[in-house]
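Final report, Chapter 2: Outcomes

The project's central promise was a pipeline that accepts a single protein chain and returns its three-dimensional structure in a standardized token representation, suitable for archiving and comparison. That pipeline is now operational. To close this chapter, we reproduce one record exactly as it appears in the project archive, with the input sequence first and the structure output second.
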Amino acid sequence: MIMRIFQVTAKEGKEEEFGDFFHNTAIPLMQGTEGIVQVLPGAARADSPREFSFVMIWKDLASLKAFVGDDYQSAHVDPSEAELVESRSIKHYDFVE
């Protein structure tokens, strides 16, 4: 299994708008995606109000590539999210049970 950690920093002043997108669009989308075994969303905290993340456990690399394409090392975002995001990062690991 593949662990994919996706982290986003919302633009200053866009925290609330991104939070709405995160809770109402991104989380349901990822929870309903074929090939994902588990989704662990992380919402912003008071000490880091612009930072959000997902830890996703994918069944295998083929499932991940079926969702994002061959360029799975890049952070793929919904077009409606792009104007809300200052930066994003993505990392992959072999999941250890």
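Archive annotation: The first strand starts at residue 2 and ends at 10.
This record, like all others produced under the grant, will remain available to the consortium after the project formally closes.
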